[in-house]
Amino acid sequence: MIAFVRGRVAAVGLTSTVLEVGGVGLELHCTPDTIAGLRLGAEASLPTSMVVREDSLTLFGFADEDEKQMFELVQTASGVGPKLAQAMLAVHRPETLRRAVASDDVKTLTAVPGIGVKGAQRIILELRDRIGAPGSAPDAAPATTTASSAGWQAQVQAGLVGLGWSAKEADRAVEAVAPEADQMPSPDVARLLRSALRALSKA
């Protein structure tokens, strides 16, 4: 089992990154938040989880151990596979998932594409005693990443450029999500980055 991968960031995409390790490029499937923290040519170390199938070996990379553990834990619930587990972490941080399960918050879980009301109820029932109480992670991060109203544009723009988009494309995406940011009490950079990626994918 490959517990983590450390190497030079050789490529970044919308859903994966390639780390060069000993002359070999390893593709890691990651959430947008994880990818946004990577820079081409820079050294990176990501905790990983390997999913073995009859016809494939897939590596998933994470920003930290808490994300990795949550990815593996939610897959113990019926009907949750690697793709859905990754989608859950793309939409919500681990701490948000803990709170949702602990408080029977079906609405938060159904915000994840692929999870309906019955699926959310099943996940809550099966994970309630295993997922841990909110705040139980060693370094539990806040549920959202906020920034000042004057700084979110630069952060989102930098994240998009780091993912390989041109500065001009990034600027257009930032303009597209500006109305969404204006409706937030405090801009949520992670959410705005996901919205910008969706805007670019539709362009």
From TrEMBL:
CDD domains: UBA_RuvA_C
Keyword Cytoplasm among record annotations: yes
Localization (cell): Cytoplasm
Any GO molecular function: ATP binding
One GO term of the biological process aspect: DNA recombination
Domain Helix-hairpin-helix DNA-binding motif class: 72-91, 107-126
Cellular component, GO annotation: cytoplasm; Holliday junction helicase complex; Holliday junction resolvase complex
Domain notes: Has three domains with a flexible linker between the domains II and III and assumes an 'L' shape. Domain III is highly mobile and contacts RuvB.
Subunit text: Homotetramer. Forms an RuvA(8)-RuvB(12)-Holliday junction (HJ) complex. HJ DNA is sandwiched between 2 RuvA tetramers; dsDNA enters through RuvA and exits via RuvB. An RuvB hexamer assembles on each DNA strand where it exits the tetramer. Each RuvB hexamer is contacted by two RuvA subunits (via domain III) on 2 adjacent RuvB subunits; this complex drives branch migration. In the full resolvosome a probable DNA-RuvA(4)-RuvB(12)-RuvC(2) complex forms which resolves the HJ.
Protein's recorded name: Holliday junction branch migration complex subunit RuvA
Species annotation: Nocardioides scoriae
Gene symbol of the encoding locus: ruvA
